[in-house]
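Usage

Read records sequentially. Each one opens with the input sequence:
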Amino acid sequence: MLSDAVADFAAGPLTPSQKACDVARAMIAAAIDRAIAHSNSRPVAIALETVLTLETPPEASIFGRNERVSAQWAAFVNALAGQAAIVPAVLALAETAGLRNTRLIEAVIVGTEIDLRLTESVAPDHTDRGWDPAGTIAHVGAVLGAGRVLGLDAARMRHALGIAATQSAGLWAAFGTMTQTYHLAKAAADGVEAALLAHAGFTGPAAPIEGRRGFAALLAGRFRPEVVTDRLGTVFKLDQTAIESFPEHPGVRDVLARYALA
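and closes with the structure output:
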């Protein structure tokens, strides 16, 4: 099944190209840069003020700020600020686990590769129906990246995929409001949560993507599963992705060094 193939890829040996590694590293730097740039924005201030009332364990950092919160909520706030889902989910869990460098690159590659393939497989019907991929498909990318950090085996990775996929939501009606970036924040936080639950033994549906009542059937009228699985693990969509350039804000290198990525 397709979901099994995705889980096998996310949990198994990975031999990415140098270009894929370079793109993933640039994605990490860019997400951190945006998070620092927006760390004092009104949406982030509101979100962080709310999160701090929960008094969660100080497991992970908020980029550009001094506060520390649980991994799940750090992923949420950093995704809201950084306008990305996969990188904040990966880094928040990596900080709690003490993982660095290559493991993080691999996790971002795994999550992004499936995100890109799944997006293409349901285009254009998915967005034509009013769904925002930042709140739907990003859940899948975030949980696979998070699951890779936790070292989930294929079986638990599939459960994590199902737990995250059932939470997929995000309306284009939110475009232009604070809720637009909330989609990414929720995807990152839900990805961390789903990966942690699966790691502890929580189970999910067997075919969350391709099942008769799964993601593709409900959120897209036309689904091309072959786009997801074609040469998966040997040909990387990231090889076709331009490396993002950005005006680096102070502090980015310090954060990268924390993860041995500077």
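Summary fields computed downstream for this record:
- The beta strands are 60-61, 68-69.
- The CA atoms of residues 210 and 216 lie 6 Å apart.
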